[in-house]
Structure formats: C-alpha cells, structure tokens
Amino acid sequence: MGTDSSAPTVRATVVQASTIFNDTPATLDKAERLLAEASGYGSQIVVFPEAFIGGYPRGTNFGVSIANRTAKGKEDFRKYHASAIDVPGPEVDRLAAMAGKYKVYLVMGAIERDGYTLYCTVLFFDSQGCFLGKHRKVVPTASERIIWGFGDGSTIPVFQTPIGKIGAAICWENKMPLLRTALYGKGIEIYCAPTGDSTDVWQASMTHIALEGGCFVLSANQFCRRKDYPPPPEYVCSGIEDDLTPDSVVCAGGSVIISPSGTVLAGPNYEGEALISADLDLGEIAREKFAFDVVGHYSRPEVLSLVVRDHPATPVTFTSASVKAEGCHN
Fold first, then answer.
1. In the prediction, which pLDDT does 7 show?
2. SS3 for 279?
3. Residue partners of 294: CB distance under 8 A and separation at least 6
4. What order do you get walking across the sheet with 158-161 strand by strand?
5. Long-range CB contacts (within 8 A, 24+) of 173-181
6. Residue in 91, 112, 120, 137 annotated catalytic
7. Which parts of 96-230 are beta strand (E)?
8. Which terminal CB of the chain, N or C, has fewer other CB atoms within 10 Å?
9. pTM of the full predicted structure?
10. Nearest one of 78, 80, 91, 79 to 31, comparing CA atoms
C-alpha cells in the first residue's frame, strides 16, 4: 500500500521478450506464459513490447527500392499480413480472456490488420477481461512507412482505471511533443511506451517524459537474437546478414520503469528476455506536479495551446445511413 488510502501502490511489469515470428498462435501462447508469470509476482499491469503480436520485421526491406517491389518482397508482405490480427477478432478475444484470467491490466503491442493496410497498434484490456480500446501509431518511423499505415486522432486514448489513468505512445512517436501533450492533457498517470529502440539515448527520452509529464513511464522492448527470426534466404537482415550468427543480438532490449521524479525503478535490462517489475507509489505524481504540471499551473494557454482533431479520418464517407438487410442473419 502507499502512504495513504488515496495514493495506492501499483505493481507493474514490463515484458522484455521476442515474438515467435510468422507464428501468431505460438506468440499468443508465449504471451500467456509470460502473463501468468507476471501475475504470480503480483503484477497489476503488464506491458508488452511494440509489435509483439505479429512481429517487428527488424532488418528486412520487403524488397522495396524507389519505384520497384520484388516478387519476394510482395510474398514477404503477404506472410506478414497473415500474421497480423483483426481488431476486434479472435486474437483480441483471447487476449481479453488472458487479462481476465490473471486479473491484470494488459497493454499489448500488436500488428493490426484493417483490410489490406497494417497498423502498429497498442491494445488495452482491463483486469475483468474487457477490451478497452486501442492506439494506432500516429507516424511510423522511416522505412516502417512501407508496411504500416498512419493512425489518426481518434485513437489517442487515456483510460481511467482503479489503478490510474493508462495510455500509450509507441517508439519514436514518443519524441513528438504535441502527441505527448495530448496525453498529458488527458491526465495520463501510467505512460506506457512499447518500443523497438534499444539505444542508450532512448533512456534519456523516457526519463524526460517521466519528468515532463509527472507520470510513471513503462517502456517495454523485445530482446531478440538472429535465431528468433527465420533463417536466410527466407528472411534477410539487409546490410548486416553476413556479419550475424544465430546467437547475434539484433535487439538488446533496454526495457525500463521510471518514476515521475526521473528515478529509474527497474531496468534498463540489456541481458536477455526478462520480466522487469517495480512498485509504483501513485502519491509521487502529486508530489512532483506540485513543482511542475505541464498542462496545469505550468502552462500558458493564452500564449501556447494545442488543438487535437480527434475524429476518425476515413478516406470514404457515405451520406446515407448503413442499413443491414433483414435477411442477412436469418
């Protein structure tokens, strides 16, 4: 428990583990094993890495060059599309059941399939097994734009829960000041940052966000070796494949939990797959915001303000109401 009844302590875990690439059912099985283990430690919220379900296609280029796509690259995308999940869909139902079974709030990185466009998405579930909603990555980074679409303002949620206000930003969109401000404006307290960035400077970004937002930051990354991906020639890490062995580390993790004061509570871990846990004293949020509340007493809305267009941006809109034929479900 925390220092008083209004400031509880929450046990949080970030998962540092690799996808089973091109095998979504096996990845879901692995997720359940890790979730069960975290629950056994008393975790109340568990955060998985970016693209854990569906996979982060590190090193591959999908056969793309300017004005050209190879036949193999097109087939690679077909396989990747097949590994993605529909939201809602059976995999989302299974994840919801897991969250309810282990009584945890679950924040899961996934590749979402919407027709033939893919999105890098975070899924949120409560401890009763309900799917709360999703966040789609607003701006895929660099060559990620070859394979992932862009999220819009309609999926930047912060969920009010008994353990705090939970939201997420994915990987380098955490470097977008206006996106962070939108989350701060919704009162985020447990800021989840699934990522694919294992560089040292990522830690500086996470510390800054904790201090800027007066929130707990939970950053989860995969730890991957070359052998966690299919072997060549099926899968090639462009430019570095010849230098790799099956045991070469291609993503070193760095998962971390940071408090609103900038104190590192757990991690960063660069050693291997791990569950990284810490107790979050939610009273620390008020203690730190006493000095700096970025969208409160330390804001100047008459000088600087933000407008968020949070409606869905759909490419096709029909003016007539959609009516299902009565006989469709007979």
1. 76
2. strand
3. 181, 184, 212, 213, 214
4. 158-161, 164-168, 190-192, 216-219, 255-258, 264-269
5. 173/137, 173/138, 173/139, 174/205, 174/206, 174/209, 175/205, 176/138, 176/139, 178/306, 179/138, 180/209, 180/212, 180/213, 181/294, 181/295, 181/306
6. 137
7. 105-114, 117-125, 131-136, 158-161, 164-168, 190-192, 216-219, 223-225
8. C
9. 0.93
10. 91
> What tens digit of pLDDT does each residue of 15-48 get?
999 999 999 999 999 999 999 999 999 999 999 9
pLDDT classification of 319: cutoffs 50, 70, 90: confident
Known catalytic membership, residue 271: no
Q: Which amino acid, residue 195? A: T
Joined tokens for residue 250: 């291609």
Catalytic: 165?
no
Q: Is the dihedral of CA 258, 263, 267, 270 positive or negative?
A: positive
State the catalytic residue, choosing from 120, 134, 144, 171.
Answer: 171
Q: Which residues face 168 on adjacent strands?
A: 192
Looking at 50, 112, 189, 288, which residue is catalytic? 50
Q: What is the pLDDT of residue 6?
A: 66
d(CA 85, CA 45): 22
pLDDT at 297 over 70: yes
Task: Please answer whether residues 97 and 124 qualify as being in contact, where contact means their C-beta atoms are separated by less than 8 angstroms.
Answer: no
pLDDT tens readout for residues 214-223: 999 999 999 9
Q: Would you tell me how many other CB atoms lie within 10 Å of the CB of residue 44? A: 22
Reply yes or no on whether the pLDDT at 182 is more than 70.
yes
Range 240-246, long-range pairs (CB < 8 A, 24+ positions): 240/59, 241/59
DSSP track, 290-303: TT--TTTTT--TTT
pLDDT at 271 over 90: yes
